[in-house]
Amino acid sequence: MNTIRPAIADDLDDVLALLNASSRWLSDRGLDQWGNGFGPDRIGPLIDRREVYIVHDGDTPVATAAASADGDTDFWTSDELAENALYLSKVTIARDRAGRGLGTTLFRWLVDQAARNGVDLVRLDAWRTNRNLHDYYEQTGWSYVRTAERKHRRSGALFQRVAERDEEAWMAFLYTGTPLNTDARYAPGDRVIFSVGGRYREGVVAATYGLDWTCEMPTASAPMYVIQSGSGRYDRSHHQVRRPAARPARGLRGTG
Question: What is the model's pLDDT at position 177?
Fold first, then answer.
């Protein structure tokens, strides 16, 4: 199963490689979209703001996308920008994964994620001259809004769709893999999908647990992130965390 998580600074080179490979592919086909490519000064700040996702197949980066609550003021009106919307950009997949449905599934996952986070609308802008891309969006559930003509911009074909939950897309990626000890990309409240005994569960990164909790398998010393799933608690290796009967319950710290 592919994994998806917010990109961190160490992922910058991989994100740029995916984006610039797509830029070259478009240029080779006579499309001027992304013609100048991308540099760290443009993508780095998006990663710092946790607006970039990266998809891996094992250890291989295979896709990336950006999602922001801030829309482009060149394209969207002030009334539209005041609405509860998420704006997608820079969605791309590795060229050797093209034609397998990965891009479509990634778009669906992003829409589902928006719905799970209480967003009403998901929007994007497309290169005005890329008619094939416009057709693709309309065929995969996006509604054409209008084309915003700006002399200094080549994008501006606007599309949107209602944010709706999509269980199939949600399960298509293992979100974040496993919360890692002292890893700043995870925090209490983050939602994850994780595997226990070959079956997938939904969970929430709850807090840290201390020495009054032990794991059913050997694990590193506390503090550590723990996933809460129903009445069960699991460590970063997806092993259940339990409170020994001989010790008093002090509960999970940091949840309130």
Answer: 43
